[in-house]
Design brief:
The protein has six helices and five strands; from the N terminus they run βαβαβαβαβαα. It is of the alpha/beta class. Strands 2-1-3-4-5 form a five-stranded parallel sheet. β3, α3 and β4 form a beta-alpha-beta unit. It is elongated and about 70 Å long.
Length: about 150
């Protein structure tokens, strides 16, 4: 039986392999966003027992107003590279630890950047739209755009 209470802010559950073990170890309360007024949907006993907050997905922010509503809070953790959406001064004043995941999406960010470079230089999206359209009648040999090879 879970005894520690964790408040999970964000529109999505944790990825499949993580959510099950997380919920088996903790009592998890979930809210779609972290506005202080969102906490009104939880009873005061639940709020008083929250020891941890996890931010996953969305644009959740942890403000002093949210921290004030969670007197037992010991840790705020965000599944993100940055932590500027957490009021670290307010956390420090309340002895609340802050965790984040630096480097978590570095590889994915680089992959998406290269995908966008290729899509833009080679007109991939435009070409797909044009050549899969019902209005397509003739092939344009000049649609390939610029070559990325040797551009750096």
């Amino acid at each position: 039986m879970a005894t520690n209470t964790v408040l999970q802010f964000g529109p999505y559950p944790l990825p499949g392999p993580l959510q099950g073990p997380f919920e088996s170890k903790y009592k998890v309360l979930r809210l779609p966003d972290s506005r202080a007024e969102s906490l009104d949907s939880l009873d005061s006993e639940s709020l008083e027992n929250v020891e941890g907050v996890i931010l996953y997905g969305g644009h959740s922010q942890i403000s002093a107003a949210v921290l004030e509503r969670l007197p037992a809070l010991r840790v705020v953790s965000t599944v993100s590279v940055g932590f500027n959406h957490i009021d670290r001064s307010a956390c420090k004043a309340r002895n609340v630890s802050v965790g984040y995941t630096p480097g978590l999406v570095s590889g994915a960010t680089a992959d998406v950047a290269w995908g966008l470079i290729l899509a833009a230089s080679r007109h991939i999206v435009l070409g797909h739209k044009k050549y899969t359209s019902e209005d397509f009648t003739t092939y344009d040999a000049n649609w390939f755009g610029k070559e990325v090879y040797g551009s750096t």
